[in-house]
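Run folding on both entries below.
>entry_1
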Amino acid sequence: WLRTRSTRAFFDPHVLLSRFPAEDAFAMSVDVATLRHAGLPGQSRAKMEPEYKQFLDGTGFDYRRDLDSVVASFSGSGTYFIARGRFDWAKLRDYATRNGGSCYKDLCRMQGSRPDRHISFLPLRKDAIALAVSTNDLAATRLAKTGAKVDDIPDAPAWISVPGSELRRPNALPPEMHLMLSALTTADRVVITFGALSSGDIEAHLEATCRTRDDARVLASQLRTTTATLREALTKTKSSGNDDVMTLLTGGSFEQKDRLVTGNWPVHKSLLEALTAGI
């Protein structure tokens, strides 16, 4: 009972998020175990990316089997993760040293894909890892202590929270989603949650809080107009094959109430499998 109570307390989302740097950051949380139980994502038939395959071969860790949940934060100081799952710590340490890194006590460090990117990780518990990618090669240690509890966390198996300042940052949006999401740059904060439907598919739900009621009315209108434009473009290019992201975005419907704009998109299992191909 004490062990169960301790585990629940450690993985309480309000406490877990308090470990992350207190910055206006892009944050996300995914309950992988719940999605796996629902059959999502499925086993991809596509060829794995070489770097991911190398990581699997070197550590024996496969998120489709071993990962139960992950919380992440993306900000100017770096990218931070706390993941829950089944880890072979000896293999992880060996992987770091074999790839030019080093380990001292619990902390391991290694060079990232660029000179200014350093990867660091350490166990928080037997079933939890703290990992950071930053200019600071000790960044993972920032996740070792808790802070003040974080309020207003979405109640969903998976969610994304993005401050408006992040959306307004140059080149923040991927090119294939820029047309759709650029309308959201007027919002103070955007929260997207993902939940299961009775059909077995997933529904994405958007909540965007704007500064004024007029801003919210304009945003809802822009989202409806952009969705219609994308739907028309998809119809014209259908013969050459569908774009998975565009197919998702064209299914959106939107409402506005006071300063809040909400939206919903159906996310089919086949689309999730396509988006996770190769990993």
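>entry_2
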Amino acid sequence: MENDDLPAAVSNVPEFSVSELSFALKREIETAFPRVRVRGEISQPSFPRSGHCYFRLKDENAVIDGIMWKGSATRLA
């Protein structure tokens, strides 16, 4: 569907690049939550050859996907 095919109300919605949206969301989250501790259960850990650790952090009502970068993962006991 091209922009010309969209209703007028939709075509007036601001358009962001992936980078712009990612930066804006990062800025908002870091402003609202400068330091956070999260309690939950780690599930589905994955340790690919990259050295990073991919996992899900969950409780009874929600799930957050997470990444532990290689530099941090290698410092764990």
